[in-house]
Amino acid sequence: MTTGSSSKSGPAHKLVETGITLLITLFGVIVIIGSLKAGINWGAEGPRAGFFPFYIGIFIVASSAINLWNGLRENNDELFAEWGQLRQVMSVVIPTAIYVGAMPFTGLYLASMIFIAWFMRWLGKYPWLTVLAVALGMPIVTYLIFERWFLVPLPKGPVEEWLGL
Amino acid sequence: MEELVNLFHGFAVALQPFNIMVMIVGIVLGVVIGVLPGLGGANGVAILLPLTFSMPPTSAIIMLSCIYWGALFGGAITSILFNIPGEPWSVATTFDGYPMAQKGKAGEALTAAFTSSFVGALFAVAMITLVAPLVASFALQFGPAEKFAVYFLAFCSFVGLSKEPPFKTIAAMMIGFALAAVGLDSITGQLRLTFGFTELLNGFDFLIAVIGLFGIGEILLTMEEGLAFRGGNAKINLRVVLQTWKELPAYWITSLRSCLIGCWMGVTPAGATPASFMSYGIAKRVAKNGSNFGKGEIEGVVAPETAAHAAGTSALLPMLSLGVPGSPTAAVLLGGLLIWGLQPGPMLFVEQKEFVWGLIASMYLGNIVGLLVVLTCVPIFAAILRVPFSIIAPLILVLCAIGAYSVHSSTFDVMLMLVFGVIGYLLKKCNYPLAPLVLAIVLGDKAEEAFRQSLLGSQGSLGVFFSNTLVSAIMVLGLIALFWSVIQQGYSRLRGAVA
């Protein structure tokens, strides 16, 4: 599955790691702001709601600062991943995002069938018969196990309504 | 003595036909989960947790804990046959297990791995049986300060003992605490950190985080590596099993040492993975034929497997007796207790005797069932791995989505799961540990509550955490754990200076 032909290029590990450390710092700052809004001092019933998360936020920012410093000092010219590898990753992330985004409208079953079929057909290049068997079989098994035997309701869309399930 | 009586009652509970069935189903599911990439103990249990909502709590915990044992067993199969660790704690098993398989001794390696797992688990369960009630009755006297000190110790051991850089561990942990704080503040009833988003009112559920971070994140990592499974055939017959069993007692010292390492690392939340590496490393240094390690020594399979299973099992000791889980999977089980309406912690041993002892008894039985299942069904499980990843991957993704949805019947959670998945992938690539993050989400509220209650009692003075011998001792232990690597460095430097 690896794309061996493309030359070894991709984003540098250092760059990505710095970016992530900065994002974590940002997250810490957001936590601090949110805590300040909730109140970090003492109220009638002791420490107020923002008291604990405020210090957590401080810890996040402080440890990220150290991680940033350590990361920049390091002599590391490795790649984070090759472009081909990242393409592989994105070929899962993007369809999964569409799948997840469609679920509130189509229900779980229809979305899952299309998702499984897409995955097997495009990434696995299976014959349509195999694709159909798995894509139809899995949701049916899921329906039986979750909704019939264990009584766990799953999201349904117009198709299920039409079928009267 | 009372414990023995309780344990017998526990066996009576665990041996009910329904519970036996649940046990077998759990083990089989667990091994499958352990074999499949992207489905590990923690998120496997998280996905299947909703299935247990309608069961009695004792059967539910038996099923989920058996999934956990199954996953521990399953990890070894892929390590030995395919050189692909199904679980992080079986990485060390590949070092000697895979070379053995290449030499045509896959059966011996698998038998040794399963048997050692079994021995490790049994040792740990015996320890839990003896120690857990004592710890629990001791912990009943804990006030808020002592409770916070225990959480402090747990999280400090993460920082000191994990192989990731300490400040990354701290950052990951604090992210978890921050996520736990989002939503309704349990003490004042005030909203915080929601920034006006109604979806965040109830905060982040750690089950969603577990499914995303461990499940989706792992799938993404596997996609990046572009795995193709190639591996030897698994054949275990009775002759090989008996022959290997004859050999194994010779390694009893390694076994015992690995059991002790495993139990220690499991109780402190360092977990099964470091335990297996540590046990392998020490066995390699101490063993007579240590230089042959890595070329297919059976002792090199015994050491990590025993330790990993002992650690995985003993992680339930602090979960049951203190309410502090020793591993992500134990954390998910703890989440299960809360959902079934049980309060984890020392009171469990007083109020829910049947539940606790049923669970402990099921650990004995579950591991026996597990050993039998894996020994007899290895070829079937190995065949699962020959199903190509492009079929397995979408099925696992759909399963993760179902699991995430059914926690609160919310499609927003499913989106959140994907976000956690991408975050998990990025954090893992940048060497941030995920286990402390998850544990912090689980324990965040409780740790905060204990912290604030202690401060309330002391009018805001931090001195409350050093106000008596007990709490000071736990805090000092925590500080030692926190600075463990620094202490170790200083010690070796000191020795170097003297010599």
From TrEMBL, chain A:
<keyword id="KW-0472">Membrane</keyword>
<keyword id="KW-0812">Transmembrane</keyword>
<dbReference type="InterPro" id="IPR009936">
    <property type="entry name" value="DUF1468"/>
</dbReference>
<feature type="transmembrane region" description="Helical">
    <location>
        <begin position="20"/>
        <end position="40"/>
    </location>
</feature>
<keyword id="KW-1133">Transmembrane helix</keyword>
<feature type="transmembrane region" description="Helical">
    <location>
        <begin position="52"/>
        <end position="72"/>
    </location>
</feature>
<feature type="transmembrane region" description="Helical">
    <location>
        <begin position="126"/>
        <end position="146"/>
    </location>
</feature>
<feature type="domain" description="DUF1468">
    <location>
        <begin position="22"/>
        <end position="155"/>
    </location>
</feature>
<protein>
    <submittedName>
        <fullName>Tripartite tricarboxylate transporter TctB family protein</fullName>
    </submittedName>
</protein>
<dbReference type="Pfam" id="PF07331">
    <property type="entry name" value="TctB"/>
</dbReference>
<feature type="transmembrane region" description="Helical">
    <location>
        <begin position="92"/>
        <end position="119"/>
    </location>
</feature>
UniProtKB/TrEMBL annotation, chain B:
<keyword id="KW-0812">Transmembrane</keyword>
<feature type="transmembrane region" description="Helical">
    <location>
        <begin position="200"/>
        <end position="221"/>
    </location>
</feature>
<feature type="transmembrane region" description="Helical">
    <location>
        <begin position="355"/>
        <end position="381"/>
    </location>
</feature>
<feature type="transmembrane region" description="Helical">
    <location>
        <begin position="463"/>
        <end position="487"/>
    </location>
</feature>
<dbReference type="Pfam" id="PF01970">
    <property type="entry name" value="TctA"/>
</dbReference>
<dbReference type="InterPro" id="IPR002823">
    <property type="entry name" value="DUF112_TM"/>
</dbReference>
<feature type="transmembrane region" description="Helical">
    <location>
        <begin position="61"/>
        <end position="82"/>
    </location>
</feature>
<feature type="domain" description="DUF112">
    <location>
        <begin position="20"/>
        <end position="439"/>
    </location>
</feature>
<feature type="transmembrane region" description="Helical">
    <location>
        <begin position="387"/>
        <end position="407"/>
    </location>
</feature>
<keyword id="KW-1133">Transmembrane helix</keyword>
<feature type="transmembrane region" description="Helical">
    <location>
        <begin position="109"/>
        <end position="136"/>
    </location>
</feature>
<feature type="transmembrane region" description="Helical">
    <location>
        <begin position="148"/>
        <end position="163"/>
    </location>
</feature>
<feature type="transmembrane region" description="Helical">
    <location>
        <begin position="322"/>
        <end position="343"/>
    </location>
</feature>
<protein>
    <submittedName>
        <fullName>Tripartite tricarboxylate transporter permease</fullName>
    </submittedName>
</protein>
<feature type="transmembrane region" description="Helical">
    <location>
        <begin position="414"/>
        <end position="443"/>
    </location>
</feature>
<keyword id="KW-0472">Membrane</keyword>
<feature type="transmembrane region" description="Helical">
    <location>
        <begin position="169"/>
        <end position="188"/>
    </location>
</feature>
<feature type="transmembrane region" description="Helical">
    <location>
        <begin position="20"/>
        <end position="49"/>
    </location>
</feature>
